[in-house]
């Protein structure tokens, strides 16, 4: 078990806690009351900052209960808390419900922190990559969608290039 140094930025803020032994995610709470209209997002403070050991990351994951009951998710899920980050951990909540606003109170559990070891990579540039069974097949290349064929992945339409004369 890894030890993580933690600072409370707000009195009474509970430390992240695992609801059950064996849980992967430790719950984070909001330090503010907030209301999110349908489609609205907010950067929600958790009142804690961390010093993760080198080689670790903390990922800010949504809670499935909030998602299932209220349609609340995290815009950048999972958020990445880098080992060197010493600022307040924040949660970018979004209300994806098309009709209902959602109200959250200070102390409500709004996200869960998953701590993981990470591998750092050295990126080695080459002219040609080694072949593989999959090759460049992706984005549904193996089939199996209920909607069947005929629906293509959405790709952005190119914007017309506008040249502005500089004076
Ligand atoms: O859900 C999140 C995501 C990020 N962070 C903090 C910790 C993280 O180390 C820092 C930067 O996050 P990220 O690298 O995802 O954002 P960026 O847009 O790349 O910003 P930067 O240029 O500061 O790296 O913001 C959070 O508190 N919560
Ligand atoms: Mg970054």
Automatic annotation (TrEMBL):
Segments for region (Disordered): 129-167
GO MF entries: dUTP diphosphatase activity
Names of the cofactor(s): Mg(2+)
UniProt-annotated binding residues for substrate: 63-65, 76, 80-82
Domain dUTPase-like: start-end pairs: 13-143
Catalyses which reaction(s): dUTP + H2O = dUMP + diphosphate + H(+)
Gene3D superfamilies reported for this sequence: 2.70.40.10
Segments of skewed composition (Gly residues): 137-147
Transmembrane is among the record's keywords: no
Pfam families from the UniProt entry: dUTPase
Swiss-Prot/TrEMBL keywords: Hydrolase, Magnesium, Metal-binding, Nucleotide metabolism
EC number assigned by the record: 3.6.1.23
InterPro entries reported in the protein's UniProt record: dUTPase (IPR008181), dUTPase-like (IPR029054), dUTPase-like_sf (IPR036157), dUTPase_trimeric (IPR033704)
Pathway(s) the chain acts in: Pyrimidine metabolism; dUMP biosynthesis; dUMP from dCTP (dUTP route): step 2/2
Enzyme class label: hydrolase
CDD domains found in the cross-reference section: trimeric_dUTPase (cd07557)
Function: This enzyme is involved in nucleotide metabolism: it produces dUMP, the immediate precursor of thymidine nucleotides and it decreases the intracellular concentration of dUTP so that uracil cannot be incorporated into DNA.
Protein family (similarity comment): Belongs to the dUTPase family.
Full protein name: Deoxyuridine 5'-triphosphate nucleotidohydrolase
């Amino acid at each position: 078990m890894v030890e993580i140094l933690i600072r409370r930025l707000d009195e009474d803020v509970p430390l992240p806690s695992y609801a059950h032994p064996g849980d992967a995610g430790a719950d984070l709470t909001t330090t503010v009351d907030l209301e999110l209209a349908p489609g609205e997002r907010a950067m929600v403070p958790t009142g804690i900052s961390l010093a993760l050991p080198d080689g670790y990351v903390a990922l800010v994951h949504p809670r499935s209960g909030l998602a299932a009951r209220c349609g609340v998710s995290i815009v950048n899920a999972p958020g990445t808390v880098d080992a060197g980050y010493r600022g307040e951990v924040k949660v970018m909540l979004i209300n994806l419900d098309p009709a209902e606003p959602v109200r959250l109170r200070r102390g409500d559990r709004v996200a869960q922190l998953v701590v993981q070891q990470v591998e750092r990579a050295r990126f080695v540039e080459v002219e040609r990559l080694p072949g593989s069974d999959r090759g460049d097949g992706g984005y549904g290349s193996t089939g199996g969608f209920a909607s069947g064929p005929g629906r293509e992945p959405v790709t952005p339409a190119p914007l017309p290039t506008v040249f502005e004369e500089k004076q």
